[in-house]
User: Fold this.
Amino acid sequence: MKTNIIILSIAIIFSIFTSCNNRYGSNEVILSDFLKELITLYLNDPENYYEASRKGNIIILTETDWLNYFISIHAATPNPRFILDFRVGTRVTFCEYDFVGETSYLGHTVRIYGSSDSFFDSPFFSTRGFKFQKPCRNHFLGCYNPNIWEVALYKDLSFSKMRTFKTVNDNDISLIQKLVERHFNPTRNTVPAFDSFVYQWWQVEFKAEFPLGEDYLRHFISSNFNVKKELNYVGKIPVAANIFIDRNGNATFKEISRSSGDDEIDNEAIRIVEKICENYTFTPAMHRGEIVNSTYSIVFLRNDIVPK
Assistant:
């Protein structure tokens, strides 16, 4: 989420002020009491003081899968507080979702995206007198405060604490949990046995750990990397690989998430990762007090590859 290029950030900020006002279509959506209270809770969060006072756009994305309902909320407004740490300017094409409609609430324009299935199957909206709008075609470009909330309910309308996230700073979801339980069903105390969701390493409270520590892992990588050559890649981390770690700590190579652009180097990285997976059992990730499946990122530094 962070970048080190000031000039690019300034250029993107300029584009934000022009693109964030783009709109197409209008279709009145009736918000449920739950969704109204969720928006109010979001705007009252200290991280969103600027957005609450600015009266800009609130973006709602609604999705569903076989196990959960999801609703995410963020403010589509540029926030000057983020200029110093370069988080301004992230742009999103919402047309990967269908534009559902919009309404006004607390002086904000609330714009809804999702799909016809996720919208009409969702417990979050009242659809009385509502006609679904065709998918958008003119690529609405939005920008957002990175403080995104994603709220999840299981299909029996119990709160899914495992899949509910805040992306910035405060990870306390207790107020969201109380709100959901007031409108729907109590929280499940344990993760269902059939919930095989794999968390990304950055989504969990306590990520999986290499059993002998990161220093030993770095030594293992550098001492076993047999391909030594100069790189055109200028960054500190030319190669990164994701592995899957199950609830028992067993590891499996998943993918090269950052390629060096050199097949020989990438293949050597895969060989090292597979050797790590074969010989070591990890401490699995923990999230909301539960042991979970997760990914783990293994990085290869420039110093591991370039001849000394």
Remarks:
- Confidence is low (pLDDT under 50) at residues 1-25, 79-96, 135-144.
- DSSP finds eight helices and 15 strands in the chain.
- The domain at 201-305 is CATH 3.30.1150 (Fusion Protein Consisting Of Minor Coat Protein, Glycine Rich Linker, Tola, And A His Tag; Chain: A; Domain 2).
- The first strand starts at residue 30 and ends at 31.
